[in-house]
Design a protein that fits this description.
- There is one protein chain.
- The longest helix has 13 residues, at 8-20.
- This protein has helices at 8-20, 47-50, 52-57, 60-65, 67-78, 89-99, 114-118, 146-154, 182-193, 212-219, 246-253, and strands at 2-3, 24-28, 103-108, 125-127, 130-137, 143-145, 169-173, 197-201, 223-227, 240-242.
- It is elongated and about 55 Å long.
- β5 and β6 form a beta hairpin.
- α6 packs parallel to α11 and α9 packs parallel to α10 (212-219).
- The strands form two sheets. A seven-stranded parallel beta sheet has the order 1-10-9-8-2-3-4, with helices on both faces. Strands 6-5-7 form a three-stranded antiparallel beta sheet.
- The protein has 269 residues and is an alpha/beta fold.
- Residues 259-264 have low confidence and may be disordered.
- It binds zinc ion.
């Protein structure tokens, strides 16, 4: 079943599942943030798809061994679109779903922190690829706010070392060549199995192991709803597949179009 905004019966069916659900679990990918101006690195037009060498250059091995790679990384972090990005209708719809008490977990492949900015609580958000909004020391593991370190870069430190131990600092994200955090993946899989409705939003579902969350939810009896611009390997087991602008369609899908989700946007960010 391929719905669009004009396919009202399909949308109504998904809305009814959401109405009945007690534990909705969402898995979001880059596609939910492109409307907020965050580029998609792995999509068809993504930076890394067009230039695979750029992804290898961003690998942890290059980062650790080459100070010039670190200096270039800090420059690009300073200029990252996340600092000026605002949550869009898709993020706000998921925040409104949490306000309704239906969101069990929000698993995200994104590092931009826009779900929290939209109003989702930190406890609900499972960031499987980490977050750009913190830094971590590769030697002692201490962490801190990204903005504090960016201040040091602005003040002239082109490769700021850890204040605790002098080690190399990096954004608290999972780089190419870096292992995922097993506890985070385990929690995501556990939550997926507890879902009544599992929403995959803006993800190609080609990055493993997290794509396995769809199969896990399906195996545990959840309704599977996939909202993505392109086909995914899991479309065949989905109860509904929707190809549409996420920011436009997600409020409809979640049945919160008339509930003024904009109120959930934190004004103090
Ligand atoms: Zn350190």
């Amino acid at each position: 079943m391929h719905a669009s905004r004009t396919d009202a019966p399909a949308l109504a069916r998904v809305r009814a599942w959401i109405e009945d659900a007690r534990r909705v679990v969402a898995l979001t990918g880059a596609g939910i943030s492109t409307d907020s101006g965050i580029p998609d690195f792995r999509g068809p037009q993504g930076l890394w798809t067009r230039d695979p060498k750029a992804e290898r250059l961003s690998s942890i091995q290059c980062y650790v061994s080459d100070p010039d790679v670190r200096k270039a990384s800090w420059k690009s972090r300073l200029a990252h679109p996340a600092w000026t990005a605002r949550p869009n209708g898709g993020h706000l719809a998921l925040a409104a779903l949490e306000q309704r008490g239906k969101l069990h977990a929000l698993i995200t492949q994104n590092i931009d922190g826009l779900h929290q900015m939209a109003g989702n609580s930190a406890e609900k958000v499972i960031e499987v690829h980490g977050t750009l909004r913190s830094v971590t020391c590769l030697t002692c593991g201490s962490t801190g706010p990204m903005q504090d370190t960016l201040e040091r870069v602005r003040a002239g430190e082109d490769d700021p070392p850890c204040h605790q131990c002098g080690g190399i600092l990096k954004s608290a994200t999972i780089s190419f060549g870096q292992p995922l955090v097993p506890e985070v993946i385990d929690r995501a899989m556990r939550c997926a199995k507890q879902a009544d409705v599992f929403l995959a939003v803006g993800t190609t579902l080609r990055v493993y192991p997290i794509a396995n969350a769809v199969q896990a939810a399906f195996g545990a009896g959840a309704k599977i709803v996939i909202i993505n611009a392109e086909e995914t390997p899991f479309d065949g087991i989905a109860d509904a597949v929707i190809r549409d602008s996420i920011g436009a369609v997600l409020p409809d899908v979640l049945g919160i179009r008339d509930r003024d989700p904009v109120d959930t946007l934190r004004r103090d960010e």
